[in-house]
Amino acid sequence: MKRTMLVTGALAAAVALTLAGCSTGSTGSTGGQTASGKTDQYVATAKAAVKAAEVPAKFAGPSSTPTPPANKTIAVIEWGAAATAVVAAGNGVKAADDLLGWKTETFDGNFLPATENSDVLQAVSQGVSGIVLVAVNPAGILSGMEAAHKAGIPVVDYADDPTVGTTGAGVYGVVSGENTEGGKVLADYIIADSKGTAKVAVYHTPDFNSTLNRYKGFMAEIKKCSGCSVLADQSYSSGSATQQIGLQVTSTLSANPKTTYLFFDIGQFAEAAAKSVTQANLKARVVGFDCNPADLQNIRAGSPQVACWASDAYTAGWAAADQLIRGITGASASDKLQAPVRLFDTANLPAKDEWHGDFDPKTEYGRLWGKS
What we know:
Blueprint: E1 2-3, H1 36-53, E2 73-78, H2 84-100, E3 103-108, H3 113-125, E4 130-134, H4 142-151, E5 155-158, E6 173-175, H5 179-194, E7 199-204, H6 209-222, E8 229-235, H7 241-255, E9 261-264, H8 267-279, E10 285-289, H9 293-301, E11 305-311, H10 313-328, E12 341-345, H11 361-369
Parallel strand pairs: 2-3, 2-4, 4-5, 5-6, 7-8, 7-9, 9-10, 10-11
Antiparallel strand pairs: 1-3, 11-12
């Protein structure tokens, strides 16, 4: 479904691989008790990782970009216009296209693969020069992807971590949100914050490659903490989570009252979980991704939500435009295009309840494109 995109400026940072011994919906533990000295050593390591992840993000993009062609039309296919981080990425693409003198057509996938696929097919039929997928899994829109491949239209993805390729679900290039690293850092935060004694309930969706990577990074890292345990490992459907996540959280905490931390792989559901914890008068801290304005507000207000991994979706939109310049001109995709990332907690919250990176994407990409 096509919709009109309004540039609202730099918005807040954005929108099942199972660990051996745990299964979806199961309860269990990771690791086993060892000498306290080993636990203390790993807590110190986790604290160092957290401190490193809290520092301001610097531009780490490519050193050059091919000369941008003129008069191009770009289609942006969004997972859903109700997702703050997704819209922020679309705004970033639109702002970059405006600087390049390109036209942007934005489509709302309405959180449905069938709609996303139809949007891609429509964009291909309109003869667009490039396509940006925002939090859309290419594997769920295969006929649209095949049409784009056949038409020679480069497809760039942000927020799903798909495979690069020229057939099937393969995309021309990606913009990374460092999802695996984000999962690892959030595990380090929990380890450090709990002094190596966390009892965690994990919530993850298998609907996206990116969330699988977030889950994978978290589980691999929390396993290293011998004094930590995973009491519940729960999967959920992203399409119905808004209605169901509150009940799922309260049910899990009732069954596992010793739970001290909740991990969520999508920010808006971490926010919903924090509300459920408060309303039920339960005791658990919540960590998640995206650092949307509501996430940052919750952390600042002292709610159960205590930390989030930010991947600046707005700047990612600029990076996606840079990737498309390469695709449209026949150059190779860059592996250096990523969103700025940073861990936020009570120690380093931004001045406002939004974060759009620690550098100006217009300045950095404008310089690469000869538009500064």
